[in-house]
Amino acid sequence: MAQASGFDPDDIPAIREHTGTAFSEILDKRISRRTMLQGAALLGLHVSLQDFAHASAASARPVFDELAHGLDEALHVAQGYSYQALLRWGDPLFADAPAFDPFDQSPESQARQFGYNNDFLAWMPLPRGTDSSVSGLLVVNHEFVSSSMMHPGSPDAFDLTRSQVDTEMQAHGLSVVEVRKQGHAWRVHRESGYNRRITPLTVMRLSGPALRDRRVRTAFSPQGLQSLGTFGNCAGCRTPWGTVLTAEENVQSYFMGHARKTDERKNYKRFGLRGTKSARSAWGRFHEHWDLDRHPQAGLHAGWIVEIDPYDPAFMPVKRTALGRCKHEGCGIVINHDGRVVVYMGDDQRFEYIYRFVSRDQYRPGDRAHNLSLLDRGELSVAEFTESGTVIWNPMVWGTGMHVPANGFASPADVVLDMRRAADLAGATPMDRPEEIKVSPVTGHVFAVLTNNTRRTMHGVDRANPRASNRHGHILELIAPHNDHSAREYRWETFMLAGNPGNEADGARYHAGVTGNGWFSNPDNCSFDRAGNLWIATDGFNDEGIADGIWVSVTQGPDRALPRHFLRAPRGAEICSPCFTPDYKTMFCSVQHPGERSSFDRPSTRWPDFDERLPPRPAVIAVTHDQGREIGS
User: Fold this and answer.
1) Residue 156: alpha-carbon gap to chain centroid
2) Element (H, E) at 505
3) Do residues 135 and 593 lie in contact, with contact meaning Cβ atoms separated by under 8 Å?
4) Digit-coded pLDDT (tens) for 565-594
5) How far is CA 315 from the centre of its chain?
6) How far is it, in rounded angstroms, from Cα 41 to Cα 24?
Protein backbone atom coordinates (compact mmCIF):
# COMPACT_ATOMS: atom_id res chain seq x y z
CA MET A 1 0.00 0.00 0.00
CA ALA A 2 1.32 3.42 -0.86
CA GLN A 3 1.75 5.82 1.99
CA ALA A 4 -0.62 8.74 1.74
CA SER A 5 2.10 10.97 3.10
CA GLY A 6 5.03 9.29 1.37
CA PHE A 7 3.92 8.42 -2.16
CA ASP A 8 5.60 10.57 -4.78
CA PRO A 9 3.11 11.35 -7.57
CA ASP A 10 5.96 12.25 -9.94
CA ASP A 11 7.49 8.81 -9.55
CA ILE A 12 5.61 7.26 -12.45
CA PRO A 13 7.07 5.34 -15.41
CA ALA A 14 6.08 6.35 -18.92
CA ILE A 15 2.51 5.40 -19.82
CA ARG A 16 2.40 2.74 -22.52
CA GLU A 17 0.04 3.48 -25.37
CA HIS A 18 -2.85 1.14 -26.13
CA THR A 19 -5.71 1.03 -28.60
CA GLY A 20 -8.11 3.11 -26.54
CA THR A 21 -11.05 0.72 -26.97
CA ALA A 22 -14.13 1.95 -25.08
CA PHE A 23 -14.55 0.58 -21.57
CA SER A 24 -18.00 -0.94 -22.17
CA GLU A 25 -16.81 -2.77 -25.28
CA ILE A 26 -13.75 -4.18 -23.53
CA LEU A 27 -15.65 -5.43 -20.51
CA ASP A 28 -18.58 -6.84 -22.46
CA LYS A 29 -16.22 -8.87 -24.64
CA ARG A 30 -14.26 -10.10 -21.63
CA ILE A 31 -17.18 -11.37 -19.55
CA SER A 32 -19.73 -12.21 -22.22
CA ARG A 33 -19.35 -15.97 -21.62
CA ARG A 34 -20.00 -15.71 -17.88
CA THR A 35 -23.78 -15.60 -18.12
CA MET A 36 -25.08 -17.61 -15.17
CA LEU A 37 -25.97 -14.55 -13.06
CA GLN A 38 -28.19 -11.90 -14.58
CA GLY A 39 -28.46 -8.37 -13.25
CA ALA A 40 -28.34 -4.73 -14.09
CA ALA A 41 -25.73 -3.78 -16.65
CA LEU A 42 -23.50 -2.26 -14.01
CA LEU A 43 -24.03 -5.02 -11.44
CA GLY A 44 -23.77 -8.38 -13.20
CA LEU A 45 -20.50 -10.25 -12.82
CA HIS A 46 -21.03 -13.69 -14.28
CA VAL A 47 -19.94 -17.19 -13.34
CA SER A 48 -18.77 -19.86 -15.79
CA LEU A 49 -19.73 -23.53 -15.62
CA GLN A 50 -16.05 -24.39 -15.72
CA ASP A 51 -15.58 -22.63 -12.39
CA PHE A 52 -18.15 -24.95 -10.81
CA ALA A 53 -16.47 -28.02 -12.26
CA HIS A 54 -13.07 -26.90 -10.99
CA ALA A 55 -14.06 -26.66 -7.33
CA SER A 56 -15.03 -29.79 -5.45
CA ALA A 57 -17.80 -27.86 -3.71
CA ALA A 58 -19.13 -24.33 -3.71
CA SER A 59 -17.69 -22.06 -1.04
CA ALA A 60 -19.72 -21.72 2.12
CA ARG A 61 -21.37 -18.34 2.30
CA PRO A 62 -20.41 -16.33 5.40
CA VAL A 63 -23.41 -15.64 7.61
CA PHE A 64 -23.68 -12.39 9.58
CA ASP A 65 -25.71 -9.20 9.60
CA GLU A 66 -23.96 -6.88 7.22
CA LEU A 67 -22.38 -3.79 8.75
CA ALA A 68 -23.47 -0.37 7.55
CA HIS A 69 -21.17 2.07 5.79
CA GLY A 70 -20.14 4.99 7.97
CA LEU A 71 -17.26 7.14 9.18
CA ASP A 72 -16.59 8.05 12.81
CA GLU A 73 -13.93 7.81 15.53
CA ALA A 74 -14.59 4.21 16.51
CA LEU A 75 -14.01 0.75 15.07
CA HIS A 76 -17.09 -1.34 14.36
CA VAL A 77 -17.61 -5.05 13.69
CA ALA A 78 -20.69 -6.95 12.55
CA GLN A 79 -23.37 -7.65 15.14
CA GLY A 80 -22.52 -10.64 17.32
CA TYR A 81 -18.76 -10.00 17.15
CA SER A 82 -16.35 -8.15 19.44
CA TYR A 83 -12.77 -6.98 19.11
CA GLN A 84 -9.82 -6.51 21.44
CA ALA A 85 -6.93 -4.10 20.84
CA LEU A 86 -4.21 -6.66 21.51
CA LEU A 87 -1.00 -4.85 20.48
CA ARG A 88 -0.79 -1.06 20.29
CA TRP A 89 2.07 1.17 19.25
CA GLY A 90 4.38 1.52 22.25
CA ASP A 91 3.12 -1.50 24.18
CA PRO A 92 6.05 -3.20 25.97
CA LEU A 93 7.08 -6.51 24.43
CA PHE A 94 9.36 -7.61 27.27
CA ALA A 95 8.89 -7.89 31.02
CA ASP A 96 11.49 -5.19 31.65
CA ALA A 97 10.45 -2.86 28.81
CA PRO A 98 9.17 0.61 29.78
CA ALA A 99 5.49 1.47 29.62
CA PHE A 100 4.34 3.66 26.73
CA ASP A 101 4.68 7.40 27.30
CA PRO A 102 4.16 9.50 24.15
CA PHE A 103 5.72 12.53 25.90
CA ASP A 104 8.90 10.66 26.85
CA GLN A 105 9.91 8.61 23.80
CA SER A 106 13.44 7.39 23.16
CA PRO A 107 15.18 4.99 20.77
CA GLU A 108 16.02 2.71 23.69
CA SER A 109 12.41 2.38 24.81
CA GLN A 110 10.97 2.06 21.30
CA ALA A 111 13.43 -0.76 20.55
CA ARG A 112 11.64 -2.83 23.23
CA GLN A 113 8.12 -1.76 22.38
CA PHE A 114 5.63 -2.56 19.65
CA GLY A 115 6.38 -0.52 16.52
CA TYR A 116 4.31 1.97 14.55
CA ASN A 117 1.84 1.50 11.66
CA ASN A 118 1.52 -2.25 11.80
CA ASP A 119 0.61 -3.89 8.49
CA PHE A 120 1.10 -7.55 7.53
CA LEU A 121 0.32 -10.24 10.12
CA ALA A 122 1.23 -13.92 10.25
CA TRP A 123 0.02 -16.42 12.86
CA MET A 124 2.70 -19.01 13.68
CA PRO A 125 1.36 -21.72 16.03
CA LEU A 126 3.16 -22.84 19.16
CA PRO A 127 4.48 -25.44 19.52
CA ARG A 128 6.00 -25.31 16.06
CA GLY A 129 4.44 -27.80 13.66
CA THR A 130 1.07 -27.88 15.44
CA ASP A 131 -2.22 -26.25 14.51
CA SER A 132 -2.65 -24.55 17.87
CA SER A 133 -5.19 -21.74 17.94
CA VAL A 134 -4.59 -20.64 21.53
CA SER A 135 -0.82 -20.15 21.63
CA GLY A 136 1.41 -18.78 18.92
CA LEU A 137 3.59 -16.05 17.52
CA LEU A 138 2.30 -12.99 15.75
CA VAL A 139 4.74 -11.67 13.16
CA VAL A 140 3.91 -8.06 12.37
CA ASN A 141 5.27 -5.60 9.81
CA HIS A 142 5.70 -1.92 10.74
CA GLU A 143 5.52 -0.14 7.40
CA PHE A 144 6.20 3.53 8.09
CA VAL A 145 5.72 6.32 10.64
CA SER A 146 3.83 9.60 10.59
CA SER A 147 6.00 12.16 12.38
CA SER A 148 3.18 14.64 12.91
CA MET A 149 1.04 11.92 14.51
CA MET A 150 3.85 10.36 16.55
CA HIS A 151 5.45 13.32 18.36
CA PRO A 152 4.09 16.14 20.55
CA GLY A 153 4.05 19.41 18.67
CA SER A 154 3.27 17.56 15.42
CA PRO A 155 6.68 18.22 13.82
CA ASP A 156 7.62 17.77 10.20
CA ALA A 157 9.92 14.80 9.51
CA PHE A 158 12.81 17.14 8.63
CA ASP A 159 12.49 19.12 11.86
CA LEU A 160 13.15 16.14 14.13
CA THR A 161 16.00 15.86 16.60
CA ARG A 162 18.55 13.05 16.38
CA SER A 163 16.76 11.24 19.19
CA GLN A 164 13.39 11.52 17.43
CA VAL A 165 14.84 10.24 14.15
CA ASP A 166 16.39 7.28 15.93
CA THR A 167 13.11 6.60 17.73
CA GLU A 168 11.30 6.54 14.40
CA MET A 169 13.85 4.13 12.98
CA GLN A 170 13.24 1.77 15.89
CA ALA A 171 9.49 1.97 15.20
CA HIS A 172 10.03 0.44 11.72
CA GLY A 173 10.70 -3.16 10.74
CA LEU A 174 8.91 -6.09 12.41
CA SER A 175 7.77 -7.37 15.77
CA VAL A 176 7.67 -11.05 16.73
CA VAL A 177 5.41 -11.50 19.74
CA GLU A 178 4.14 -14.55 21.59
CA VAL A 179 0.43 -14.33 22.43
CA ARG A 180 -1.84 -16.69 24.31
CA LYS A 181 -5.59 -17.02 24.61
CA GLN A 182 -6.86 -17.04 28.18
CA GLY A 183 -10.59 -17.60 28.39
CA HIS A 184 -12.14 -15.25 25.83
CA ALA A 185 -9.24 -12.77 25.79
CA TRP A 186 -5.80 -12.70 24.24
CA ARG A 187 -2.69 -11.74 26.21
CA VAL A 188 0.89 -10.86 25.28
CA HIS A 189 3.44 -13.19 26.87
CA ARG A 190 6.18 -10.68 27.71
CA GLU A 191 8.45 -13.29 29.28
CA SER A 192 8.69 -15.23 26.02
CA GLY A 193 12.12 -15.96 24.58
CA TYR A 194 10.65 -15.65 21.08
CA ASN A 195 9.82 -11.94 21.39
CA ARG A 196 12.06 -9.74 19.29
CA ARG A 197 12.22 -6.59 17.20
CA ILE A 198 13.71 -6.52 13.72
CA THR A 199 14.59 -2.98 12.62
CA PRO A 200 16.42 -0.94 9.95
CA LEU A 201 19.59 -1.53 11.97
CA THR A 202 19.32 -5.34 12.16
CA VAL A 203 22.14 -7.07 10.30
CA MET A 204 20.89 -9.27 7.44
CA ARG A 205 22.53 -11.38 4.80
CA LEU A 206 22.10 -11.41 1.04
CA SER A 207 21.44 -14.54 -0.99
CA GLY A 208 20.76 -15.34 -4.61
CA PRO A 209 22.07 -13.71 -7.80
CA ALA A 210 23.04 -10.36 -6.24
CA LEU A 211 25.18 -11.94 -3.52
CA ARG A 212 28.79 -10.64 -3.77
CA ASP A 213 27.97 -8.61 -6.88
CA ARG A 214 30.05 -5.45 -7.23
CA ARG A 215 26.89 -3.32 -7.32
CA VAL A 216 25.87 -4.28 -3.78
CA ARG A 217 29.27 -3.70 -2.20
CA THR A 218 29.04 -0.93 0.38
CA ALA A 219 31.03 0.40 3.31
CA PHE A 220 28.78 -1.70 5.54
CA SER A 221 29.51 -4.85 3.50
CA PRO A 222 32.58 -4.41 1.27
CA GLN A 223 32.21 -7.93 -0.14
CA GLY A 224 28.47 -7.69 -0.80
CA LEU A 225 27.56 -10.38 1.71
CA GLN A 226 25.31 -8.52 4.13
CA SER A 227 22.69 -5.78 4.23
CA LEU A 228 21.62 -3.32 6.88
CA GLY A 229 18.09 -3.74 8.14
CA THR A 230 14.62 -3.74 6.62
CA PHE A 231 12.04 -0.95 6.36
CA GLY A 232 9.02 0.04 4.31
CA ASN A 233 7.66 -3.45 5.10
CA CYS A 234 4.17 -3.81 3.70
CA ALA A 235 2.60 -7.23 3.19
CA GLY A 236 4.03 -10.75 3.06
CA CYS A 237 3.20 -14.41 3.59
CA ARG A 238 3.99 -17.56 5.54
CA THR A 239 6.08 -20.24 3.88
CA PRO A 240 5.23 -23.97 4.00
CA TRP A 241 8.47 -24.55 5.93
CA GLY A 242 7.53 -22.25 8.81
CA THR A 243 9.23 -18.96 8.00
CA VAL A 244 7.82 -15.58 6.99
CA LEU A 245 8.43 -13.50 3.88
CA THR A 246 8.16 -9.75 4.40
CA ALA A 247 8.03 -7.29 1.50
CA GLU A 248 9.90 -3.99 1.28
CA GLU A 249 7.78 -1.44 -0.57
CA ASN A 250 8.20 2.36 -0.42
CA VAL A 251 11.92 2.31 0.34
CA GLN A 252 12.58 5.27 -1.97
CA SER A 253 11.26 7.55 0.79
CA TYR A 254 14.21 6.96 3.12
CA PHE A 255 17.34 7.95 1.17
CA MET A 256 18.87 11.40 0.95
CA GLY A 257 21.60 12.78 -1.30
CA HIS A 258 21.83 13.21 -5.06
CA ALA A 259 20.70 10.03 -6.81
CA ARG A 260 21.39 11.52 -10.23
CA LYS A 261 25.08 11.87 -9.43
CA THR A 262 25.61 8.20 -8.66
CA ASP A 263 26.58 5.40 -11.04
CA GLU A 264 23.13 3.96 -10.33
CA ARG A 265 21.25 7.00 -11.61
CA LYS A 266 19.40 5.04 -14.34
CA ASN A 267 18.36 2.34 -11.89
CA TYR A 268 17.27 4.87 -9.29
CA LYS A 269 15.31 6.89 -11.84
CA ARG A 270 13.37 3.80 -12.99
CA PHE A 271 12.80 2.89 -9.34
CA GLY A 272 11.65 6.39 -8.39
CA LEU A 273 14.48 6.84 -5.91
CA ARG A 274 15.56 10.47 -6.25
CA GLY A 275 17.46 10.96 -3.01
CA THR A 276 16.53 14.05 -1.04
CA LYS A 277 13.89 14.98 -3.64
CA SER A 278 11.86 11.85 -2.86
CA ALA A 279 12.78 11.52 0.82
CA ARG A 280 10.08 11.56 3.48
CA SER A 281 12.46 10.99 6.37
CA ALA A 282 15.65 12.56 7.70
CA TRP A 283 17.54 9.33 8.35
CA GLY A 284 20.36 10.38 6.03
CA ARG A 285 21.11 13.45 8.16
CA PHE A 286 22.25 11.29 11.06
CA HIS A 287 22.97 7.87 9.53
CA GLU A 288 25.31 8.02 6.57
CA HIS A 289 24.16 4.65 5.18
CA TRP A 290 21.01 6.44 4.00
CA ASP A 291 22.98 9.26 2.33
CA LEU A 292 23.60 8.40 -1.33
CA ASP A 293 26.32 11.02 -1.59
CA ARG A 294 28.39 8.97 0.86
CA HIS A 295 27.12 5.49 0.00
CA PRO A 296 25.75 5.52 -3.55
CA GLN A 297 25.12 1.74 -3.66
CA ALA A 298 23.03 1.64 -0.47
CA GLY A 299 19.77 2.15 -2.37
CA LEU A 300 20.25 -1.22 -4.04
CA HIS A 301 19.99 -2.90 -0.64
CA ALA A 302 16.31 -1.94 -0.35
CA GLY A 303 13.25 -3.22 -2.23
CA TRP A 304 13.61 -6.95 -1.60
CA ILE A 305 11.63 -9.85 -0.17
CA VAL A 306 13.15 -10.72 3.22
CA GLU A 307 12.85 -14.13 4.89
CA ILE A 308 12.85 -14.44 8.68
CA ASP A 309 12.40 -17.39 11.02
CA PRO A 310 10.18 -16.30 13.93
CA TYR A 311 10.83 -19.58 15.74
CA ASP A 312 14.58 -18.97 15.86
CA PRO A 313 15.69 -15.62 17.36
CA ALA A 314 19.27 -16.41 16.31
CA PHE A 315 18.31 -16.73 12.63
CA MET A 316 19.79 -13.90 10.57
CA PRO A 317 17.13 -12.50 8.20
CA VAL A 318 17.87 -13.07 4.51
CA LYS A 319 17.18 -10.79 1.55
CA ARG A 320 16.20 -13.23 -1.20
CA THR A 321 17.47 -11.41 -4.29
CA ALA A 322 16.30 -14.13 -6.70
CA LEU A 323 12.79 -12.72 -6.18
CA GLY A 324 13.86 -9.41 -7.69
CA ARG A 325 13.95 -5.80 -6.54
CA CYS A 326 10.94 -3.50 -6.80
CA LYS A 327 8.37 -1.88 -4.52
CA HIS A 328 7.06 -5.19 -3.27
CA GLU A 329 3.56 -4.90 -1.82
CA GLY A 330 3.47 -8.52 -0.81
CA CYS A 331 3.67 -12.09 -2.05
CA GLY A 332 1.64 -15.26 -2.23
CA ILE A 333 3.19 -18.72 -2.14
CA VAL A 334 2.04 -22.16 -3.25
CA ILE A 335 3.60 -25.62 -3.65
CA ASN A 336 3.08 -26.70 -7.24
CA HIS A 337 1.92 -30.23 -8.14
CA ASP A 338 5.51 -31.10 -9.09
CA GLY A 339 6.84 -30.01 -5.68
CA ARG A 340 8.38 -26.74 -6.80
CA VAL A 341 7.66 -23.52 -4.93
CA VAL A 342 5.87 -20.70 -6.74
CA VAL A 343 5.81 -17.13 -5.44
CA TYR A 344 3.51 -14.43 -6.88
CA MET A 345 4.43 -10.78 -6.33
CA GLY A 346 3.00 -7.35 -7.08
CA ASP A 347 4.94 -4.11 -7.61
CA ASP A 348 2.75 -1.47 -5.96
CA GLN A 349 2.97 1.52 -8.21
CA ARG A 350 0.95 2.89 -11.08
CA PHE A 351 1.74 1.06 -14.35
CA GLU A 352 3.97 -1.53 -12.70
CA TYR A 353 3.84 -5.29 -13.00
CA ILE A 354 2.87 -8.69 -11.60
CA TYR A 355 5.73 -11.18 -11.19
CA ARG A 356 6.16 -14.90 -10.64
CA PHE A 357 9.09 -16.95 -9.31
CA VAL A 358 9.26 -20.72 -9.81
CA SER A 359 11.95 -22.52 -7.80
CA ARG A 360 14.43 -24.80 -9.49
CA ASP A 361 14.28 -27.38 -6.72
CA GLN A 362 11.42 -29.18 -5.02
CA TYR A 363 10.04 -28.63 -1.54
CA ARG A 364 10.93 -31.42 0.91
CA PRO A 365 8.62 -31.67 3.93
CA GLY A 366 10.65 -31.67 7.13
CA ASP A 367 13.97 -30.82 5.45
CA ARG A 368 14.47 -27.32 6.83
CA ALA A 369 18.01 -26.80 5.56
CA HIS A 370 17.03 -27.70 2.01
CA ASN A 371 13.83 -25.65 2.04
CA LEU A 372 15.67 -22.56 3.25
CA SER A 373 17.54 -22.54 -0.08
CA LEU A 374 14.50 -22.88 -2.36
CA LEU A 375 14.09 -19.16 -2.98
CA ASP A 376 17.66 -18.67 -4.19
CA ARG A 377 17.46 -20.49 -7.53
CA GLY A 378 14.65 -20.49 -10.05
CA GLU A 379 12.98 -18.66 -12.90
CA LEU A 380 11.68 -15.11 -12.52
CA SER A 381 8.98 -14.06 -14.99
CA VAL A 382 6.53 -11.21 -15.51
CA ALA A 383 2.87 -11.22 -16.56
CA GLU A 384 1.59 -10.16 -19.96
CA PHE A 385 -2.23 -9.98 -20.13
CA THR A 386 -3.48 -10.49 -23.67
CA GLU A 387 -6.72 -9.28 -25.24
CA SER A 388 -7.82 -12.90 -25.68
CA GLY A 389 -7.92 -13.47 -21.92
CA THR A 390 -4.58 -15.24 -21.60
CA VAL A 391 -1.81 -14.51 -19.11
CA ILE A 392 1.64 -15.18 -20.56
CA TRP A 393 4.52 -15.45 -18.10
CA ASN A 394 7.50 -13.97 -19.92
CA PRO A 395 10.81 -15.17 -18.44
CA MET A 396 13.53 -12.77 -17.37
CA VAL A 397 16.53 -15.07 -17.56
CA TRP A 398 20.00 -13.67 -18.01
CA GLY A 399 21.62 -14.50 -21.34
CA THR A 400 18.30 -15.06 -23.11
CA GLY A 401 15.91 -12.83 -25.02
CA MET A 402 16.50 -9.16 -24.29
CA HIS A 403 18.38 -9.82 -21.05
CA VAL A 404 21.87 -9.88 -22.53
CA PRO A 405 25.01 -7.76 -22.14
CA ALA A 406 24.15 -5.75 -25.25
CA ASN A 407 21.14 -4.39 -23.34
CA GLY A 408 23.07 -3.64 -20.17
CA PHE A 409 22.58 -6.94 -18.34
CA ALA A 410 26.12 -8.08 -17.63
CA SER A 411 25.16 -10.84 -15.19
CA PRO A 412 22.16 -12.51 -13.48
CA ALA A 413 22.56 -9.93 -10.70
CA ASP A 414 21.71 -7.12 -13.12
CA VAL A 415 18.39 -8.78 -13.98
CA VAL A 416 17.19 -8.85 -10.37
CA LEU A 417 18.69 -5.47 -9.44
CA ASP A 418 17.08 -3.85 -12.50
CA MET A 419 13.94 -5.98 -12.45
CA ARG A 420 11.62 -3.20 -13.58
CA ARG A 421 13.71 -2.52 -16.68
CA ALA A 422 14.02 -6.24 -17.32
CA ALA A 423 10.23 -6.47 -17.19
CA ASP A 424 9.88 -3.52 -19.58
CA LEU A 425 11.96 -5.40 -22.14
CA ALA A 426 10.05 -8.64 -21.56
CA GLY A 427 6.78 -7.09 -22.72
CA ALA A 428 4.97 -6.94 -19.37
CA THR A 429 1.50 -5.40 -19.06
CA PRO A 430 1.48 -2.18 -16.99
CA MET A 431 -1.11 -2.62 -14.23
CA ASP A 432 -3.23 -0.42 -11.95
CA ARG A 433 -1.05 -0.69 -8.84
CA PRO A 434 -0.65 -4.42 -8.09
CA GLU A 435 -0.86 -5.05 -4.35
CA GLU A 436 -1.74 -8.32 -2.61
CA ILE A 437 -1.67 -11.57 -4.60
CA LYS A 438 -2.98 -14.74 -2.94
CA VAL A 439 -3.81 -18.30 -3.99
CA SER A 440 -7.17 -19.87 -3.09
CA PRO A 441 -6.75 -22.98 -0.90
CA VAL A 442 -9.90 -24.44 -2.49
CA THR A 443 -9.53 -23.84 -6.23
CA GLY A 444 -5.86 -22.95 -6.62
CA HIS A 445 -6.88 -19.81 -8.50
CA VAL A 446 -4.68 -16.75 -8.06
CA PHE A 447 -6.37 -13.49 -7.01
CA ALA A 448 -4.54 -10.25 -7.77
CA VAL A 449 -5.69 -7.04 -6.09
CA LEU A 450 -5.18 -3.76 -7.95
CA THR A 451 -5.90 -0.71 -5.81
CA ASN A 452 -6.36 2.15 -8.30
CA ASN A 453 -4.78 4.22 -11.05
CA THR A 454 -6.25 7.64 -11.70
CA ARG A 455 -3.57 8.37 -14.30
CA ARG A 456 -4.64 5.77 -16.82
CA THR A 457 -6.20 7.45 -19.85
CA MET A 458 -8.63 6.00 -22.39
CA HIS A 459 -5.67 5.56 -24.72
CA GLY A 460 -4.02 3.40 -22.08
CA VAL A 461 -7.01 1.16 -21.30
CA ASP A 462 -6.54 -2.57 -21.86
CA ARG A 463 -8.54 -5.68 -21.04
CA ALA A 464 -6.89 -6.33 -17.68
CA ASN A 465 -7.13 -2.65 -16.70
CA PRO A 466 -10.42 -1.69 -18.32
CA ARG A 467 -11.15 1.74 -16.82
CA ALA A 468 -9.61 5.10 -17.48
CA SER A 469 -9.00 7.19 -14.36
CA ASN A 470 -9.51 4.08 -12.25
CA ARG A 471 -9.97 5.54 -8.76
CA HIS A 472 -11.66 2.49 -7.22
CA GLY A 473 -9.47 -0.47 -8.20
CA HIS A 474 -10.35 -4.04 -9.15
CA ILE A 475 -9.54 -7.71 -8.55
CA LEU A 476 -8.41 -10.20 -11.19
CA GLU A 477 -8.57 -14.00 -11.04
CA LEU A 478 -5.75 -15.94 -12.72
CA ILE A 479 -6.40 -19.61 -13.50
CA ALA A 480 -3.47 -21.95 -14.10
CA PRO A 481 -4.20 -24.88 -16.43
CA HIS A 482 -4.76 -28.05 -14.39
CA ASN A 483 -3.46 -26.05 -11.39
CA ASP A 484 0.03 -26.09 -12.89
CA HIS A 485 1.52 -22.92 -11.45
CA SER A 486 4.64 -23.33 -13.57
CA ALA A 487 2.70 -23.19 -16.85
CA ARG A 488 3.72 -20.56 -19.38
CA GLU A 489 0.11 -19.51 -20.06
CA TYR A 490 -2.93 -19.09 -17.79
CA ARG A 491 -6.35 -17.68 -18.43
CA TRP A 492 -7.77 -14.79 -16.43
CA GLU A 493 -11.13 -13.31 -15.45
CA THR A 494 -12.26 -10.05 -13.94
CA PHE A 495 -13.53 -10.94 -10.45
CA MET A 496 -14.71 -7.49 -9.35
CA LEU A 497 -14.52 -3.89 -10.45
CA ALA A 498 -14.78 -1.82 -7.28
CA GLY A 499 -16.76 1.39 -6.89
CA ASN A 500 -20.35 2.42 -6.34
CA PRO A 501 -22.73 0.35 -8.51
CA GLY A 502 -25.30 3.09 -8.15
CA ASN A 503 -23.03 5.56 -9.91
CA GLU A 504 -22.87 4.75 -13.62
CA ALA A 505 -19.64 6.72 -14.01
CA ASP A 506 -17.81 4.29 -11.68
CA GLY A 507 -18.39 1.33 -13.98
CA ALA A 508 -18.48 -1.00 -10.98
CA ARG A 509 -19.16 -4.73 -11.41
CA TYR A 510 -20.24 -7.14 -8.67
CA HIS A 511 -22.84 -9.85 -8.17
CA ALA A 512 -26.29 -8.46 -8.89
CA GLY A 513 -27.28 -8.86 -5.24
CA VAL A 514 -24.72 -6.44 -3.83
CA THR A 515 -26.25 -4.13 -1.21
CA GLY A 516 -25.73 -0.45 -0.54
CA ASN A 517 -23.23 -1.48 2.17
CA GLY A 518 -21.57 -4.26 0.20
CA TRP A 519 -19.70 -2.15 -2.32
CA PHE A 520 -16.22 -0.83 -1.58
CA SER A 521 -13.33 1.14 -3.05
CA ASN A 522 -9.56 0.68 -3.18
CA PRO A 523 -9.06 -3.02 -2.36
CA ASP A 524 -5.60 -3.55 -0.91
CA ASN A 525 -4.97 -6.67 1.19
CA CYS A 526 -6.78 -9.98 0.92
CA SER A 527 -6.84 -13.34 2.68
CA PHE A 528 -8.68 -16.63 2.21
CA ASP A 529 -10.48 -18.71 4.78
CA ARG A 530 -10.51 -22.49 4.48
CA ALA A 531 -13.82 -22.43 2.57
CA GLY A 532 -12.18 -20.31 -0.11
CA ASN A 533 -13.98 -17.08 0.77
CA LEU A 534 -11.98 -13.95 -0.02
CA TRP A 535 -11.60 -11.40 2.80
CA ILE A 536 -10.83 -8.00 1.29
CA ALA A 537 -9.30 -5.06 3.19
CA THR A 538 -9.39 -1.56 1.70
CA ASP A 539 -7.08 1.47 1.72
CA GLY A 540 -8.50 4.74 0.47
CA PHE A 541 -12.25 4.42 0.97
CA ASN A 542 -11.99 7.42 3.31
CA ASP A 543 -11.69 9.54 0.19
CA GLU A 544 -15.30 8.62 -0.57
CA GLY A 545 -16.42 9.81 2.87
CA ILE A 546 -16.81 6.19 3.99
CA ALA A 547 -14.51 4.32 6.35
CA ASP A 548 -12.11 1.65 5.13
CA GLY A 549 -12.73 -1.84 6.39
CA ILE A 550 -13.10 -5.53 5.56
CA TRP A 551 -15.53 -7.14 3.13
CA VAL A 552 -15.89 -10.87 2.43
CA SER A 553 -17.01 -12.57 -0.76
CA VAL A 554 -17.64 -16.08 -1.98
CA THR A 555 -15.43 -16.81 -4.99
CA GLN A 556 -17.33 -19.76 -6.50
CA GLY A 557 -20.97 -20.71 -6.96
CA PRO A 558 -24.15 -18.65 -7.18
CA ASP A 559 -22.96 -16.01 -4.69
CA ARG A 560 -19.65 -15.42 -6.47
CA ALA A 561 -18.48 -11.80 -6.29
CA LEU A 562 -21.11 -10.80 -3.72
CA PRO A 563 -19.14 -8.78 -1.11
CA ARG A 564 -20.56 -8.24 2.38
CA HIS A 565 -19.33 -5.61 4.86
CA PHE A 566 -17.87 -7.11 8.06
CA LEU A 567 -15.63 -4.53 9.77
CA ARG A 568 -15.28 -0.73 9.70
CA ALA A 569 -12.13 1.22 10.58
CA PRO A 570 -11.92 4.34 12.75
CA ARG A 571 -11.54 7.69 11.03
CA GLY A 572 -8.35 8.02 8.99
CA ALA A 573 -7.34 4.36 9.35
CA GLU A 574 -7.01 1.53 6.90
CA ILE A 575 -7.36 -2.14 7.75
CA CYS A 576 -4.56 -4.53 6.79
CA SER A 577 -3.92 -8.24 6.57
CA PRO A 578 -6.89 -10.20 7.93
CA CYS A 579 -5.33 -13.34 9.43
CA PHE A 580 -7.02 -16.35 11.03
CA THR A 581 -6.08 -18.87 13.71
CA PRO A 582 -6.28 -22.49 12.45
CA ASP A 583 -9.68 -22.99 14.10
CA TYR A 584 -10.98 -19.79 12.44
CA LYS A 585 -12.36 -18.58 15.76
CA THR A 586 -10.09 -15.52 15.90
CA MET A 587 -9.31 -13.09 13.13
CA PHE A 588 -6.36 -10.77 13.68
CA CYS A 589 -5.96 -7.66 11.57
CA SER A 590 -3.98 -4.43 11.62
CA VAL A 591 -5.47 -0.99 12.11
CA GLN A 592 -2.97 1.33 10.48
CA HIS A 593 -2.60 5.14 10.81
CA PRO A 594 -5.83 5.98 12.73
CA GLY A 595 -6.41 9.72 12.59
CA GLU A 596 -4.37 10.14 9.42
CA ARG A 597 -4.35 13.69 8.01
CA SER A 598 -4.84 15.13 11.48
CA SER A 599 -2.07 15.57 14.06
CA PHE A 600 -0.72 14.46 17.44
CA ASP A 601 -2.00 17.66 19.03
CA ARG A 602 -5.40 17.76 17.29
CA PRO A 603 -6.27 14.18 16.35
CA SER A 604 -9.48 13.29 14.52
CA THR A 605 -9.80 10.20 16.74
CA ARG A 606 -8.12 8.87 19.87
CA TRP A 607 -8.72 5.25 19.00
CA PRO A 608 -8.12 2.75 20.58
CA ASP A 609 -7.63 4.23 24.08
CA PHE A 610 -9.94 7.26 23.82
CA ASP A 611 -7.79 8.87 26.50
CA GLU A 612 -7.27 12.64 26.23
CA ARG A 613 -3.66 12.12 27.32
CA LEU A 614 -2.89 9.74 24.44
CA PRO A 615 -2.75 10.15 20.67
CA PRO A 616 -4.33 7.62 18.29
CA ARG A 617 -2.28 4.44 18.17
CA PRO A 618 -1.96 1.91 15.35
CA ALA A 619 -2.83 -1.51 16.74
CA VAL A 620 -3.42 -5.19 16.03
CA ILE A 621 -6.92 -6.28 16.95
CA ALA A 622 -8.33 -9.75 17.67
CA VAL A 623 -11.91 -10.27 16.46
CA THR A 624 -14.00 -13.09 17.94
CA HIS A 625 -17.59 -14.27 17.77
CA ASP A 626 -19.49 -13.57 20.98
CA GLN A 627 -20.67 -17.21 21.08
CA GLY A 628 -17.26 -18.64 20.27
CA ARG A 629 -18.16 -19.69 16.74
CA GLU A 630 -15.99 -19.47 13.63
CA ILE A 631 -15.55 -16.06 12.04
CA GLY A 632 -18.25 -15.55 9.44
CA SER A 633 -20.43 -18.43 10.63
Assistant:
1) 26
2) none
3) no
4) 999 999 999 999 999 999 999 999 999 999
5) 23
6) 10
